[in-house]
Task: structure prediction
Amino acid sequence: MATTPGAPAEQRDHEAARERIEALRGEIHAHDYRYYIEAQPVIGDSQYDALMQELRALEERFPDLVSPDSPTQRVAGTPAEAFPVVEHREPMLSLSNVFNRDELLAWRQRMARLLERDELRYVCEPKIDGLAISLIYEGGRFVRGATRGDGMRGEEITANLRTIRSIPLVLNADPATLPAAFEVRGEIYMSKGEFARLNAERAAAGDQLYMNPRNTAAGSLRQLDPQKTAARRLDLFAYQLGWVEGERPLDAHHDAIRWLRELGFPTNPHTEAFERIEDVAAFCEAWVDRRDALDYDIDGVVVKVDDFAAQRALGVVGREPRWATAWKFPAEQAVTRLREIQVSVGRTGVLTPFAALEPVFVGGVTVSMATLHNADHLRELDIRAGDYVIVQRAGDVIPQVVGPVLARREDGLVPFEMPSHCPVCGTEVAKDPEEAAYYCPNRTCPVKVARQIEHFASRGAMDLEGFGEERSAMLVERGFVSSVADLYRLPDRRADLLEVDKIGEKTLDTLFAGLERSKQQPLHRLLIALGIRHVGGETARALARHFGSMPALRAATVEEIEAVDGVGPIVAEAVRAHLDDPAYAAVIDDLASLGLRMDEEIAARGGVLDGLSIVVTGSLERWSRNQVEDLIKSLGGKVSGAVSKKTSFVVAGNGGGSKRDKAETLGVEILDQSAFVARLAELGWADQT
Ligand SMILES: [Zn+2]
Result:
């Protein structure tokens, strides 16, 4: 390259800018730490803003010096179309619950027995009512973050997490002293103060108010546009060191929390360690009354065994670690006025009364609706519109009306009567004599069809993404769908669908690909999806295994159906009635003609994977995770979540990281999709798809 006379000066400028930029970033980083971690800011907002402004100006002049962890880049992400799904390297488990001292002691007893020792150290921390997230750091920098999701897979929301100023982008330590990569788990929450500020703004603008801090935080975190996340102030409490690449730097949870704090993570200041379980119980009980003094909602206290070695020895049962539990606060009650008893219509057409309440604050949220269970419950308790009622809420449970406050009943209130006509379509309501339930008999009642679609698409059924409540209702309302079979005709209506708000090409591609894949779902999933009364997962599996195909099932008599293991006379009658109903029979014929699979894995009954323990990781092209797991199980194999020496082989698709590594270390065989298919064929599996 030819040198120009100006070059050396420019280079000097560039060098000076680089130094100044680094100094500014360091200074801003230090101020963030004092502000968010130590809560002792040493400069005012305007001075802080001046530093940011200078940094921004320099970065604009020298764009090559911008780096993703610069404080100016917290809100630099562009809106996403959707969040990519990521598999957690280690599952984000849920916690068992205890509600009182006795249950806490029993929890401790179990651990002492398993460990064969009595002395344990416990760490207690307030259980923040927020959203669990996973943050990954590499070389001392924040690189990726995800929601908890279902514990196995979450959504990657890195750009949004960057906007949260209490999440450190660069850690307070020399990267050389840190593990190459590690995960930090924490809870994102919105303070009560910020929640009040937002709602005051909304009230002034005449907008509908937000329900509670937790839902508002959840909504903010999942904005596709990071600018929107940044506009609401969210906060973090780091509560756990997750996986660590290489040596784990510490031996105990409490030390890990202290270490995270030194690195720049906000940790809960009320975290305390105890040696005696009685002290743990006293700590938990004390928080029931102290909780209101905090500027954030808590719904219990988390108690963990401190020692990592003991944690490992105790392990996990189901999806819950044995070494931790949540002391949940008791249900809260409040009294409010029942404005009106309304009626909703469900998937099977059953009418369910629910309470529309004067909004009341109970258990940390403002409640304006509550369940009344069913018409019988309502009659038994004689709850009337206009009554003052006791409303109860515990944890995430739907708020419920416990009963009326009869002393406050006013004159002229009348007992509740079920409406004589469907509140949605106006069809005359029928009564099911067996179940004392009222239902709308109209097969094409729009609410019923929409709910059927939701159910058909649900995870345990056909496992279709993107057919939630709102979209299902839209598809029915706009006449795209009047039975579940119509879903498979949606690809023919691409152009019409593109006219609909909020549906783009990409969304349609995803929806259609899901539909196409779902055609290969085995018979038992289709049986679940059809929503036959009394037929849940177990029964559907038993029927599918026994009959092998839809035609065989349809040809069976009630007696033959009843002969299936685990199927009683009521279920057999319900199945027969469903199959005999001309409208449902037409839907099944329709689905078959659209190319849906109507059988169960035939070789399944041969059990070609009998006795094998298989781990699946990453994503496969041919099957969804649910499908491949179903296939393995139906062939007699066991699906395991973790690789060990006992693992027969690992099926690895794209992106399976840690499990693949583990398998390599242990010398366990790894099969990609085609090798897996070849192995199945070798074992005698007849590939039907
Ligand atoms: Zn109706």
Q: What stands out?
A: Residues 446-518 form a domain with the DNA polymerase; domain 1 fold (CATH 1.10.150.20). Residues 60 and 625 are 45 Å apart (CA to CA).
